[in-house]
């Protein structure tokens, strides 16, 4: 057994989160793609079966009240809240991330007010944010400018209405300075919208603490909600009365069953709701979130950094020098919970890794992505992944 | 046995769709709320279990390709297509009805082109359509005018960009003249958007035959997709190249995994996609749609009219005269698949009906709604519902 391999065993033995692995359905595969689709929490299948067979099949329409379907978006939002540092009553679950980006950006422009007619968007963003930002700009009479997060402070002006930022870059895994950028954007009189897809559930976000106004995120990565599970929208409590949604569906009405012709928005987080909530997916997510009982996000962060540190160390030790280049920052304060390695044949390499039971993913044109989900990935997994990677790269 | 009761037994025996009842999970309740939430098709629980345990739990990320997750929105759209008279390649499933109304209305205004700056909306519509229409108008620089469907021909002008119409009124069950109104709107140079929530799966729609441009609908009523199951969007093939979505998420990109900065829409129905599809709910819907195998929508319509005719006849026979007033049209060509009865104490009456195993619903302020889903409601059910209603109204 090599030194790294022995250390992996010791680290797993000392890992206070190691017991959480049994809360997931896993096999012999090293699953490093939880930053794309989280593994199945063991409690989900039974819950989904109950939702389908009893709540839908037997209670049918009565479940909207009796099984708590109607209030699920706010209730599950409150379950996500502590993971992203939010007090209750500020998060609502529903729709896709793209749709929530649209709600948040348009609302941000409206909050920023007259005379502000420019939206800044992270030029390195996951594409959908940029596409949606373009539509939000077009529909609010704003211009759109793509800048890197580092360029944001210099790009802010009296014209800036909203800034759409990623907490962690989907490709490189770079973690951005949410507290600093939030304060800078606010000082310029603009409103920041944070996309938390690649940070929520992997590291502390501190939405309330850092005075974030608006944020969105998906739930199928580190929150393990299942394929395409509904996204969420955070609106800071102090801003909710000014949240003016571009998608004012009947679920956000103050009296949804009043069937009133005039729209009057509800107060609170549920102002971010739109149409009828997608119950099957939403309640699967609710069951999935139970794995977080008793888990501190600080402990998750500590393990996440230890895992990515260890992976980088194993890669440095095993992989021939110069064969791959890490595009993930070395500094902890700039690293999310994934490691991205560039190599020209990344697509082929990832195919071979997957065949050998090491599952990451490939992002065009040349990036191997490895996501480290501290609730179910251990150090022995990490060492094995690096070893197999090195064998395939030789 | 009364005459009506005996006739019910005979009608059930002669019903060519009677065998379909066993394709659903039902009990002794007379379920007349399938126009709100369809009953559970028997094939759904097993399918959902496979999606959760095997596709998600074992294959995980591989299922996006291997289990056909990625292409589900178009594939399931094609499964809905014959039920609404559409050729393949024009329907995509995803998002809520409200979100799809927004996409369709904004796209309609853009198709109508410059100089047209008014949206007409059905004044009697389910509220969400009106709220969303107001937002679409605000965001496209249009004014919004609420008119009854009968007033539409007179309200059309050179200013009209789009008209949002309901095929069947959610409250009264009135069926509107889709072919005639579509032609009238088109002749005025405007674009009609049809909301099919209360007609799809209950009667022939004939989207292609009648030259409909844009339509949306939910899948949890007569299509039995489950609580909050994803909605769908129909864009006529000849119009798809001009469909300019206000929600251009990465799923509608010509090359979604190209991670390209510039948005270039895909061609075809999938231009209506937005974000990551909600797989659990979507594949439950796909399983639910299998109950339609071998069913002609014309046969469904024939039975639907027979059921509502029979219900009205039983009500007239059993219920004390003047105790309720039907707001559902008598003429077949103006009737959907529900009967709405007004009485001042409708809320209380419906509570008592539900306690006695006759499940309809109440719509404020004074409407008892009874939905008749021909795949699983029989004539004996109908007679029992009317009899219990009469007892409670005496």
UniProtKB/TrEMBL annotation, chains A, B:
SUPFAM superfamilies noted in UniProt: PLP-dependent transferases
Class in the EC hierarchy, top level: hydrolase
GO BP, one annotated term: L-kynurenine catabolic process
GO molecular function, one term: kynureninase activity
Matching InterPro entries: Kynureninase (IPR010111), PyrdxlP-dep_Trfase (IPR015424), PyrdxlP-dep_Trfase_major (IPR015421), PyrdxlP-dep_Trfase_small (IPR015422)
Binding site for pyridoxal 5'-phosphate: 97-98, 126-129, 195, 198, 220, 250, 276
GO cellular component, one term: cytoplasm
Signal peptide: none
EC number: 3.7.1.3
Pathway assigned in UniProt: Amino-acid degradation; L-kynurenine degradation; L-alanine and anthranilate from L-kynurenine: step 1/1; Cofactor biosynthesis; NAD(+) biosynthesis; quinolinate from L-kynurenine: step 2/3
Catalytic activity as recorded in UniProt: L-kynurenine + H2O = anthranilate + L-alanine + H(+); 3-hydroxy-L-kynurenine + H2O = 3-hydroxyanthranilate + L-alanine + H(+)
Gene3D superfamilies, sorted: Aspartate Aminotransferase, domain 1, Type I PLP-dependent aspartate aminotransferase-like (Major domain)
Subunit structure as annotated in this protein's UniProt entry: Homodimer.
Protein name from the UniProt record: Kynureninase
Species this protein is from: Streptomyces chromofuscus
